[in-house]
Amino acid sequence: MNPPTDCGADAGKIWSRPFAVLALCNLLVFINLHMILPTLPSYVKHTFRADDWVAGSITSVFAFTAIISRLFAAKVVQKQRNYSIVVWGLAVTILSGAGYLWTDGIVWVLLFRAFSGIGFGITSTLFATMATDVLPYKRMGEGMGIFGLSISIAMSVGPLIGLRLLNEWGMEPLMTASMAAPLLALGLLPLVRPLRTAGGAPLAAAENKDSGQAFALLSVPMLLNLLLAVVHGGIISFLALYGVQAGIAHVSLFFLIFTLAIVSARAFVGRWDDRFGNAGILTAGAVSVIACVLFLSSAASLWSILAGSICYGIGYGSIRSCLQTWMVKAVPVSKRGLANGMYFNSLDFGVASGAMLLGLVASFTGYAAMYRYSSLLMIAFLACLLVQAARKKRFIHKRMDAGGDA
User: Fold this and answer.
1) What SS3 state is found at 193?
2) Residue 5, SS3?
3) CB proximity list for 3: less than 8 A, separation 6 or greater
4) Using CA atoms, how far apart are residues 316 and 292, in angstroms rounded to an integer?
5) Residue 21 to residues 37, 67, 121, 131, 195, Cα–Cα distance (Å)
6) What is the pLDDT along the chain (406 residues), one digit of tens a residue?
7) In whole angstroms, what is the distance from residue 241 CA to residue 371 CA?
8) Residue-wise DSSP of 159-180
9) Contacts of 316 (CB under 8 A, 6+ apart)
10) Which residues pair with 5 in a beta bridge?
11) Quick one: CA dihedral 381, 223, 81, 72, positive or negative?
12) 351, exposed or middle or buried, with CB in 10 Å at 0-12, 13-18, 19+?
C-alpha cells in the first residue's frame, strides 16, 4: 500500500473517504485492545490459577513488544514510505487472537500476548501516520482531534463488550468477537486508495534531518506526554481500590464521565490548536488535571470523584490531542511514523511506570496522599512548558536580530 497523495481541490478538507476509513480501522484496532485488556488477566487467574504477578505480566509483555514493534514500523515507513506492513500487523493480531482459543498453558498465553503487542504496535502507529498523510497541514490539530475520538470511543465500549462476553458466554465468544474487529479493518483497507498527501506541509525545510535531529525536536512533547501518562497510570490503576478504602460506591462512573469529557474536549480543542497554538491549551489542560487529582485526594463522596472525572477528561483529552499534533507537525513527512511511534511509546511506558511508581508511593502514604503527590508531576509539566516558551522566545529574538544585522 503506497502512501496517500494530494487530493487537489479537497486538500483543505478534513473528511475524505481515506480519513473516514482510517478512523474506523483505528477504532476497530483499539476496540480489540480494550476488549482483551481487562479480561485476559482475569481469565488467566481463574483458568490457570496464576498469581497476581503472572496476571500482571500479561499486560507487561504486551506493552513491551508493542514499544519495540513501533520503532520497527516507524523505521520501515521512514525509509520506504510504504504502508503494506500494516496488513502484517493486522494479520498478526488476528492470528494471536486465534491462538488464545487453543492454548492450554500460561507460557502459550504469554507468547501469543507478545505477538498481539507486535500487531498492535504496528497498526496503532501506522493508522495514525496514514491519517496525518491525508490531513491538510493547517488543519492537522482539528483532524487529529477527530481521529483521536476513535480511541476514546474504544476505551468506553471495548471493556463493556469484553466483560459482558466473558461473563455471560465465556472465552471463546470473546476471542471470536475480538478477532472480528481487526478482520473487518483488514477488509476495509482496500478502500484507502493512494491519494496524494494533503497539501501545505513544509517538506523542504526539514526532509534532510536525520533521526537524531528528529528526536531532539520531539523530546519536549515526548517528555510532557510521559509526565501525563505517569499520572494516568496512577489514576486508572488505583481508583477502584481507593473507592473501596474510602467507602465510596459506584466509582466506576468516573471512567464513563471521563470518556464523555474526553470526547467533548477533542471535538473542539484541535480547532483551537490550529488557530491559536497549543501553549494556552496545554497550560489549561495541566491545571485541569491538577484540579482532578486534588478532587480525588480529598474525595468524601461520589460527587467529588465525578467532579474530578470531568476535570480529568477535559485536561487529559486536550493535552493528548495537542501533544500528538505537536509531534507530527514538528518533523518532516518522512519522520511522521517516528513521531507517532514515540508518542505512543512514551504513553505506554508512562502508564506502566506510573502504576509501579505511584503504587510504591501509595504503599507508604495511602491513596489520597499519592494523588496529591502526583500533582507534582503536572507542576513539572507546567515548568517544562515555561522553559519551552522561553527557549522559543529566545530563538525568535535571535532570528530577528540576525535578520536585522543582515
Assistant:
1) coil
2) strand
3) 81, 82, 83, 130, 133, 194, 197
4) 10
5) 24, 25, 19, 9, 13
6) 554 444 433 457 888 899 999 999 999 999 999 888 878 877 887 788 777 667 667 777 888 899 899 988 888 777 765 678 899 999 999 999 888 888 778 889 889 999 999 999 999 999 998 998 888 888 888 898 889 889 888 887 888 888 888 888 988 899 999 999 999 999 999 988 654 444 444 443 344 445 566 667 788 999 999 999 999 988 887 887 788 888 888 887 888 898 889 988 887 888 888 888 899 999 999 999 999 999 999 988 899 999 999 999 999 999 998 998 999 888 888 788 888 888 989 988 888 788 778 888 988 998 899 999 999 999 999 999 999 888 877 766 666 666 654 4
7) 13
8) HHHHHHHHHHT-HHHHHHHHHH
9) 228, 232, 258, 262, 265, 285, 289
10) 196
11) negative
12) buried
Interatomic CA distance for residues 81 and 137, integer angstroms? 18
The closest of 139, 33, 25, 168 to 86, measured between CA atoms, is 25
Q: Cβ–Cβ contacts within 10 Å for residue 311, how many?
A: 23
- Say how far apart CA 346 and CA 80 lie, in whole Å: 24
- State which amino acid sits at residue 118: I
Nearest of 371, 381, 61 to residue 222 by alpha carbon: 381
Contact indicator for 246, 371 with CB cutoff of 8 Å = no
Q: Are 220 and 229 in contact (CB under 8 A)?
A: no
Burial class (CB in 10 A: 0-12, 13-18, 19+), 275: exposed
- 119, 96 Cβ separation under 8 angstroms: yes
CB 236 within 8 A of CB 259: no
Residues in contact with 185: Cβ distance below 8 Å, sequence separation at least 6, in sequence order? 24, 25, 28, 29, 90, 123
Exposed/middle/buried for residue 208 (C-beta within 10 Å: 0-12, 13-18, 19+): exposed
Extended strands (E) in 62-199: none
- CA pair distance 315, 313, nearest whole angstrom: 6
The answer to whether 22 touches 147, Cβ cutoff 8 Å, is yes
